């Protein structure tokens, strides 16, 4: 369980965001997430760590770890979604870890690179886990073992998104069903906004 009493938001300069090659760091990140909704997902991630030789490598099959960020606005009533250039769906910022077992660092890096927003802050505990199938152009279909974090945008953020998305939109939870997002992203939104509001 997430315990807001013992943590605080951190920025990109924090020493806890250094690169790590230690696979044990991945398990330490996901082990505390033990709610009934995602327990089976966590156990499948443990199996990937135990059974596959390169779970942090994007070439690993049947899948590999990714990290993503639920970016919430300062008013805590909207999240930022990107229309993915290759997948052609609305998603939260995120991407491949490329050997970095510090999944928190990956999530903040991806959020910063994909949105261009300066001054993002991340909550230093993962808040959700999801395994989903992707089928990008010029690649075989495979699984993303996604570890998800909460990221807070500053007031009046300026978007400067990169090439990985064709559109960006701040949306409320009520907008999600009409945008075709999956159940996992809707669950992440509920979890993330509830936590963010509890921290105010």
Word description of this protein:
The protein has 200 residues and is an alpha+beta fold. It contains 4 helices and 8 strands; from the N terminus they run ααββββαββββα. The strands form 2 sheets. Strands 1, 4, 5, 6 and 7 form a 5-stranded mixed beta sheet that branches. It has a 3-stranded antiparallel beta sheet with strand order 3-2-8. Helix 1 runs antiparallel to helix 2. The model has no long low-confidence stretch (mean pLDDT 94).
From the alpha carbons, calculate the radius of gyration and give it in angstroms: 16 Å
Separate helix tally: 4
Number of strands: 8
Sheet with the most strands?
A: 5 strands, mixed
Structural class: alpha+beta
Q: What fraction of residues sit in β-strands? A: 15-25%
Order of helices and strands: HHEEEEHEEEEH
Average pLDDT score: 94
Helicity, in percent? Answer: 25-40%
Termini Cα gap: 18 Å
Q: What ranges have pLDDT less than 50 throughout 5 or more consecutive residues? A: none
**Which overall shape is indicated by the principal axes computed on the Cα atoms?**
globular
Task: Tag the structure with descriptive keywords.
globular, 8 strands, 3-stranded antiparallel beta sheet, 24% strand, 4 helices, 25% helix, 200 residues, 5-stranded mixed beta sheet, alpha+beta
Topology:
Blueprint: H1 23-30, H2 39-51, E1 63-72, E2 79-84, E3 90-91, E4 94-96, H3 103-115, E5 121-122, E6 128-134, E7 142-152, E8 165-171, H4 183-198
Parallel strand pairs: 1-7
Antiparallel strand pairs: 1-4, 2-3, 2-8, 5-7, 6-7
Helix pairs in contact: 1-2
């Amino acid at each position: 369980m997430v315990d807001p009493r013992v943590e605080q938001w951190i920025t990109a300069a924090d020493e806890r965001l250094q690169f790590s090659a230690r696979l044990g760091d991945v398990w330490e990140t996901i082990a505390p997430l033990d709610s009934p909704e995602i327990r089976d997902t966590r156990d499948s991630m443990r199996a990937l760590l135990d059974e596959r030789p390169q779970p942090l490598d994007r070439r690993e099959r049947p899948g590999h770890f990714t990290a993503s960020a639920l970016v919430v606005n300062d008013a805590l009533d909207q999240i930022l979604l990107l229309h993915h250039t290759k997948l052609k769906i609305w998603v939260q910022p995120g991407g491949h870890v490329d050997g970095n077992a510090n999944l928190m660092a990956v999530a903040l890096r991806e959020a910063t690179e994909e949105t261009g927003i300066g001054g993002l802050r991340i909550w230093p505990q993962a808040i959700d886990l999801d395994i989903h199938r992707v089928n990008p152009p010029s690649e075989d279909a495979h699984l993303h073992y996604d570890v998800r974090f909460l990221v807070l945008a500053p007031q009046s953020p300026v978007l400067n998104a990169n090439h990985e998305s064709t559109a960006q939109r701040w949306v409320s939870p009520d907008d999600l069903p009409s945008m075709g997002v999956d159940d996992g992203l809707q669950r992440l939104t509920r979890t993330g906004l509830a936590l963010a509001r509890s921290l105010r």
